[in-house]
Amino acid sequence: MLPRSLPVPRTPDSQTAPRLRWGILGTGWIAEQFVRSLQRHTRQVVQAVGSRTLPTAQRAADRWGGATAYGSYAGLVADPRVDVVYIATPHHLHLPNALLAIEAGKHVLVEKPIGLSADEARTMHHAARTAGVFCMEALWTLCLPKYDVIRQLLTDGVLGEPTAVLADIGEAFAADHRILRPDLAGGPLLDLGTYPVMLATWVLGDPDIVQAVGTAATTTINGQLAITLHSPNAVAALHTTLQAVTPTTAVIAGSEATISIERFFYRTGPFALTGRDGARLEFDEPAVDHDALHFEAAEVARCIADGQTGSPLRPMADTVRTLAVMDRIREAVGITFDEAIIARR
Ligand SMILES: NC(=O)c1ccc[n+]([C@@H]2O[C@H](COP(=O)([O-])OP(=O)(O)OC[C@H]3O[C@@H](n4cnc5c(N)ncnc54)[C@H](OP(=O)(O)O)[C@@H]3O)[C@@H](O)[C@H]2O)c1
Questions:
Q1: What is the mean pLDDT of the chain?
Q2: Which domains does the chain possess?
Q3: Ligand 1 close to Cβ of residue 27 (< 6 A)
Q4: Which of 239, 252, 331, 333 has its CA 20 to 30 A from that of 281?
């Protein structure tokens, strides 16, 4: 039997989060979305911006309301007025850039994937614990009100025993996008696959068996992956591609009820809860895409103000678990990151 109604999201209003002074490290696409959402929906302050060059930093600072501009990441993290640094560089730079900030005594919010491997996530977590600073992967999905409703359905046992997670994410990228560059640790898995693997491990925990097959996009970059994860009483069937637009929906099936999350499952938007007898409850909200990034920023601000070194919404142990599964997927398919190609500058 389904409940009479869906649970209400417990996510606080982002405007009520304690005000922190943010340093933005890297001025690319996601940094722009993050700052826009932060400035629209929170009282957070964009204090400073660090870029590889001063003119780029200055242009971003001008767009973002007069933040202090630094022509190096080291300059940014040394600013004593910055409380927390948002790391928005390509994947392979997350670890060195986060360590730079952590060693300067800054709290960090690090874009997904937090590193290239579980070992990198562990290294970052260890450094943050040693320094006594906050560290979280910017897995914004888990900070959305919609996912708090799903979280409550799972913890309240409304689905019964979860039996399967089916999830897909696919986009068609232009040939010059960084996702097709081996020197930036490209391929769909780390960029897009993080979301379905996160969902499967969030719901089902660590899999016993990880299997994957893939096809290549170029001679040096994987194009797509079909992944199966096996747990004692559940399976996950996942797909990710950088070569085609695919449904990007997700299903969490359980013995008593099933959640079907519409495109784009990892963002805001509708989902349905369907019982064994066909009874149905619907969650609806406008799909606002990356304008919802403020929820993760507000979560970070609340945790830091509360003296926490991690968020219960995306604990570092869960980040490590997701990356450990991605390590096993790469091993199954033979995807390696060539240190000679990836220059960590
Ligand atoms: N949460 C989400 O929904 C979401 C969406 C997209 C991307 N992401 C994640 O965010 C990260 C950045 O993605 P993006 O799409 O914003 O990338 P992007 O547009 O290429 O921006 C990356 C920025 O990193 C800096 N950078 C430092 N070294 C670089 C190098 N060797 N090559 C290129 N850029 C370098 C640059 O800023 P400066 O020139 O200012 O130093 C650049 O603008 C990725 O890890 C990705 O997975 C998350």
A1: 97
A2: 14-140 (3.40.50.720), 141-333 (3.30.360.10)
A3: yes
A4: 239
